[in-house]
Write a structure and sequence with these properties.
heterotrimer, A mainly beta (173), B alpha/beta (388), C mainly beta (154), B: 388 residues, alpha/beta, two-stranded antiparallel ribbon, 36% helix, C: mainly beta, five-stranded antiparallel sheet, three-stranded antiparallel sheet, 1 helix, 42% strand, extended
C-alpha cells in the first residue's frame, strides 16, 4: 500500500454487538411480491408442460432449436419461426450436489441440480432442473436422463410439472 | 477516433469487514477522501464521478448510487452509477475512463462500495433473483448451484482435481496476510480446504470468498493534470468488456468466453500481442478458487485446462513468472461485490508504483491487468494499466 | 422486426407469482449512532456543523458533502422549527383508505439546513406552510426516528 497511508477506516462489528445492543439498528421487511408475465414463449412453454411436453423454438436463420424457447434468436436477432416438440430426454451437462439451503441451513437430504442438455435442441442447449431417483454418487456428466412429469391432476403449468429428471435405464459409471 | 490518455493518480480503500458500522455513504466517503488525499486533490478538483454498487436490494436502499453520491463527492456534479454484477468494480473504471478519454472531463473519481451485511438473513436472498423467476426459482435454488455447476463442468472437461484448485485459496489467503485491509489473511493448507464443509459439491466452504462490506476509490486524470499531480502516473492502456447470453444453460460453462472477448478488446487497445510476456501482474476475479484459474484461461494467459498446473508449479506466486492476485484477491481480502473489483485495480496501481509494501511483486513490473466478471457468469470486464 | 406470434385470447396470458425473500437490517452509521443515542438517552436533537461552509446538517453527517471535510463539531438543535412543506395522506401503501388522514411534513429546525420528515400532530386543516412547530418525544425511546412522536403546533 502507499507508505503514506498509516491506517485504514472501516469499523468491524460482530453479530453479538447487535444482540447485546452495542449498536443501534433498524429493521425493514419489504413486501416484494411479483406477478411476472410469462410472455409469449414461456407462456406456451408452461402450458405445454401441463400437457406433458417440453417444447422449443427454431430460428429460421441459424436453424438452432432453442430451449428455453424464445421469440427472438439472440444470435441472429431475428424472430424465431416454429415450435418444436422435444422428446423429453437428455444428457447431464453439469450438476452439483447441494447440502445447504439458500440461507445456509443444512438440508436433511442433499439435492442434485443439473443442467440438462435436451435431445432435439441445439448442441449445448438445455435447462436447469433437479435429478431424482438416483444417488448423488451415481451422477456424472454425460448421464442420460428423462423427464418425469407429475400426474396430470397435479400439474399447474409450472416448471415443477416436471418433478425431476431420472436416469434412463441402468445407471453405470 | 482520438481518445486522450488517462492515468490513475490516487487510490484509497476501507478495510473489508464482515459487517461495518458505517453506512454505505460513510464507507464511500472514507475511501473517496483517502483517494483524494493520497494525491493532494480536493473535492473541487473532481469533475465527474463514476460509481459502482451492486443491487439496491443488498443495502435495502432505492437507487443506492444516488444515496451514496454525497459520500463520493458527486454533490452538484455529473454522476453515473453502474452495476454489472461482480464485473462492476472494473466496469466503473471503464466508465470513468471514457469520461476523461473523451475529453469531456479532466478528472473523474471512481468509487465502488458495498454494504452486504444489511441484507438478512443472508445476502443470498438478494442473489436469488439471478435465477429465472418462472423456470428456475420454483426449484428452490441456491446461488452456490451456479458456481458448483460451472466448477464441475470445468473440472470434468479437463480432468482437474480439487487439490490443484485448492492451491489458489492457500496462495491468496497467504498473500492477504500482507494486505492491511484484508478480512481473511491467514496461513491455511490444501488439506484445510479439502476437509472443509461440502456446501454444494464440488464447492466447499474454503473454496468461497467471504461476503463483506467495504469501499474503494481511485482518481483518474487526463495527461496534463496527471503530470501536475504525480510523478508516477499509472496509465490506462486498454479496456474491454463483453456480455454472454442470458440463457446460461445454453453456454459452454467450462470456458468464460465473455472474458476472452473483453480481454481481446483490451489487448488490442493496449497494443499487446503476447499477453503472457507483456502482462507482468494479473488480478483476475476470484470469488471462488476455481474462478482464478478459469479466468486466467479466458484472459489467454494460460492454455485451456492448464491454469491449475501453472499454479502448482508456482508460476502464479508473488515471486513467480506471472504473479496472480498478489493482493490476496477476493478469497483473502474479501468480497464486497462492487468494491472487490476496484480493489484489484487499486492493487495494480500500487504495485506498478512500487508502493505495495510487503505485497510488492519484485522485478519492477511495468504492466498489469485487472479483470472482473458478473454474477450469472455473464459479464467480462478488463482493464490494463501500465507505467512508462 | 415483428414477432410471429401473439396471444389471441386473454386467458392464455400467464403470470408467474413469487416473492423476493429479503429483510434489511440497517446500521445507523458513525454519525447516526450518536444522533439516535442523543434522542434515546437525552431526548434532544443534534446536528453536525461544517465551519467552512457554515452549514449545519440535520440529520447529522460524518462528512460535509459540499467540501468533503470530516465533521467533528456537534451542535444541539433547538426543539422548534417551522413547516417547510406538508401533505395530507389519505390512503395506505395498498391504496386503502386510512381511518384518519395523516399529516406528513418536512420540518425545518431552527439553525439547521435541511430538515426532518415526520408527522404533524394536528388536524389537517390547521396545518400551513410556515406554521411554527415543536418536537414531541415519546416517554419510552429505543433509538429510532419513531422516538419522536411528531411535531405539534408551537
Amino acid at each position: 500500500m502507499s507508505e503514506r497511508i498509516s491506517s485504514y477506516p472501516g469499523t468491524p462489528l460482530k453479530e453479538r454487538d447487535f444482540a447485546e445492543g452495542k449498536v443501534l439498528f433498524q429493521w425493514w421487511i419489504p413486501r416484494a411480491h411479483y406477478a411476472w408475465d410469462a410472455g409469449v414463449a414461456i407462456g406456451r412453454f408452461l402450458r405445454e408442460l401441463r400437457a406433458g411436453r417440453l417444447v422449443a423454438r427454431r430460428c429460421p436463420q441459424c436453424r438452432r432449436v432453442l430451449v428455453p424457447p424464445r421469440m427472438v434468436c439472440e444470435h441472429c436477432f431475428c424472430p424465431t419461426s416454429e415450435w418444436v416438440v422435444l422428446p423429453g430426454t437428455g444428457t447431464v451437462k453439469t450438476f452439483s450436489v447441494c447440502y445447504v439451503t439458500w440461507d445456509m441451513q443444512p438440508l436433511d437430504e442433499p439435492i442434485v441440480p443439473a443442467v440438462i442438455e435436451l435431445d432435439g435442441a441445439a448442441p449445448g442447449g438445455g435447462i436447469m432442473h433437479l435429478l431424482g431417483e438416483v444417488r448423488p454418487e451415481e451422477v456424472h456428466i454425460g448421464l442420460r436422463v428423462e423427464a418425469v412429469f407429475r400426474p396430470v391432476e397435479e400439474r399447474t403449468a409450472a416448471i415443477t410439472d416436471i418433478r425431476y429428471f431420472r436416469p434412463i435405464g441402468e445407471v453405470k459409471r | 477516433m482520438r481518445m486522450r490518455r488517462v492515468a490513475v493518480v490516487g487510490a484509497g480503500m476501507t478495510k473489508f469487514v464482515r459487517r461495518a458500522l458505517e453506512t454505505a455513504d460513510e464507507l464511500s466517503w472514507q475511501a473517496s477522501k483517502m483517494a483524494l488525499d493520497s494525491c493532494g486533490l480536493t473535492l473541487a478538483d473532481v469533475d465527474a464521478v463514476a460509481f459502482g454498487t451492486a443491487p439496491d436490494t443488498f443495502d435495502g436502499v432505492h437507487m443506492n448510487g444516488e444515496y451514496c453520491a454525497p459520500g463520493c463527492g458527486a454533490y452538484g456534479k455529473p454522476f453515473i452509477r453502474c452495476y454489472v454484477g461482480g464485473g462492476t468494480g472494473v466496469m466503473a473504471v471503464i466508465h470513468g475512463w471514457y469520461h476523461v478519454a473523451s475529453g469531456l472531463f479532466d478528472t473523474c473519481l471512481v468509487v465502488c462500495e458495498e454494504k452486504m451485511s444489511s441484507c438478512q438473513p443472508h445476502p443470498q436472498g438478494a442473489f436469488l433473483t439471478i435465477f429465472d423467476h418462472t423456470l428456475e426459482r420454483p426449484l428452490g435454488p441456491n446461488l452456490l448451484w451456479i458456481f458448483a455447476m460451472e466448477m464441475n463442468a470445468y473440472m470434468t472437461r479437463y480432468g482437474l482435481n480439487k487439490r490443484d484448485i485448492a492451491l489458489v485459496t492457500v496462495k491468496n489467503r497467504a498473500n492477504a496476510k500482507d494486505h492491511p485491509c484484508a478480512l481473511l489473511g491467514e496461513e491455511i493448507t490444501v488439506e484445510d480446504v479439502l476437509n472443509s464443509e461440502v456446501m454444494a459439491w464440488p464447492v466447499q466452504r474454503l473454496d468461497v470468498s467471504p461476503i463483506s462490506d467495504g469501499a474503494v476509490a481511485i482518481v483518474l486524470a487526463a495527461e496534463h493534470v496527471a503530470h501536475r499531480v504525480t510523478d508516477k502516473p499509472v496509465w490506462i492502456e486498454g479496456v474491454g468488456w463483453s456480455l454472454e447470453t442470458a440463457y446460461w444453460t445454453n453456454r459452454d460453462l467450462s470456458y468464460p468466453l465473455q472474458v476472452e472477448q473483453a480481454a481481446r478488446m483490451a489487448y488490442q487497445m493496449a497494443g499487446i500481442t503476447e499477453p503472457r510476456k507483456q502482462i507482468h501482474i494479473v488480478e483476475p476475479y476470484d470469488p471462488f478458487d476455481y474462478k482464478e484459474l478459469h479466468h486466467l484461461e479466458g484472459l489467454l494467459l494460460a492454455d485451456k485446462g492448464k491454469a491449475p498446473e501453472m499454479t502448482a508449479l508456482g508460476v502464479t506466486r508473488r515471486d513467480g513468472d506471472l504473479p496472480v492476485c498478489p493482493s490476496g484477491g477476493l478469497l483473502g481480502v474479501g468480497n464486497p461485490i462492487a468494491a472487490a473489483g476496484l480493489m484489484k485495480v487499486a492493487e495494480i496501481f500500487w504495485q506498478l508504483r512500487g508502493e505495495a509494501g510487503r505485497r510488492q511483486v519484485p522485478g519492477n513490473p511495468k504492466r498489469g491487468l485487472a479483470q472482473a466478471w458478473g454474477d450469472l457468469m455473464q459479464v467480462g470486464t478488463v482493464v490494463i494499466l501500465g507505467v512508462a | 422486426m415483428s414477432l410471429t406470434e401473439r396471444l389471441q385470447a386473454f386467458h392464455q396470458a400467464v403470470a408467474w407469482q413469487g416473492e423476493i425473500p429479503l429483510q434489511n437490517r440497517y446500521t445507523m452509521g458513525l454519525a447516526g449512532e450518536r444522533f439516535f443515542r442523543e434522542i434515546r438517552d437525552h431526548a434532544r436533537l443534534m446536528g453536525t456543523r461544517c465551519p467552512r461552509c457554515n452549514w449545519t446538517y440535520l440529520p447529522p453527517r460524518l462528512y460535509c458533502e459540499r467540501c468533503f471535510a470530516e465533521l467533528t463539531e456537534w451542535v444541539e438543535v433547538p426543539p422548534s422549527g417551522t413547516v417547510y412543506a406538508y401533505t395530507v395522506v389519505h390512503v395506505d401503501l395498498d391504496e386503502q383508505p386510512l381511518t384518519e388522514p395523516e399529516v406528513l411534513a418536512l420540518v425545518q429546525l431552527e439553525g439547521c439546513d435541511g430538515g426532518l420528515i415526520h408527522r404533524v400532530l394536528a388536524a389537517p386543516d390547521q396545518v400551513y406552510i410556515g406554521m411554527p412547530v415543536e418536537v414531541v418525544f415519546r416517554e419510552e425511546r429505543e433509538g429510532s426516528i419513531l422516538d419522536i412522536a411528531g411535531f405539534r403546533p408551537a
